[in-house]
């Protein structure tokens, strides 16, 4: 329990600073000591509450919901009806694949220049990216690839990007909870531990938001993504 509290404080802190990273960091660290399905069940409540909080910051929720509704629907379809083995199957390949996803995400964020996608391509890319994100979510419990790089390429301003990430992450969290319940496995949602994990997540998010104004976000982002790469390498070859 002490380890869970520390992990979710760190994950909440990261989310407070850069607007993302709670599910990625918490899943990456938790799965070094427990099964992926168990880790995902603990993640549900902290992820849902902090994402709702992030989603409600700003006044463009309805506009963004209309713009990205196909993206959100595709996330649900990809997660609930994923063709890949699910988290609850405890497949041996889940751990290294999660590590590989962390490596790819870190490298993409650090090394590749920011790209731009036109509104014309957005119409067909949104449901495709949403579906792929859902499939990966169902198999690993991580919903940043390819959703985050895609949303970062849509020329959204800072507030719109933060709010859209909150929308995508909220949908992914709900879809993941539905999947875990639908699988009817022994690793159902651990509401007690998940509720306890919410407390350090909120504290960490408050502290992170405060520190956002004290440190360089650019430097922190580089350190964060480098840390994800290191963690991913460990998980891939463990």
Automatic annotation (TrEMBL):
Task: State where the protein is found.
Answer: Cell membrane
Signal peptide residues on this chain, from the entry's feature table: none
Q: Does the keyword Zinc apply?
A: no
Can the keyword Flavoprotein be found in this entry's annotation?
A: no
Q: How does it sit in the membrane?
A: Multi-pass membrane protein
Its transmembrane ranges are 29-52, 64-81, 93-112, 124-149, 161-181, 219-237
Keywords assigned by UniProt, alphabetized: Cell membrane, Membrane, Transmembrane, Transmembrane helix, Transport
Tell me its family. Answer: Belongs to the 4-toluene sulfonate uptake permease (TSUP) (TC 2.A.102) family.
Q: What is this protein called?
A: Probable membrane transporter protein
Q: Which organism is it from?
A: Providencia zhijiangensis
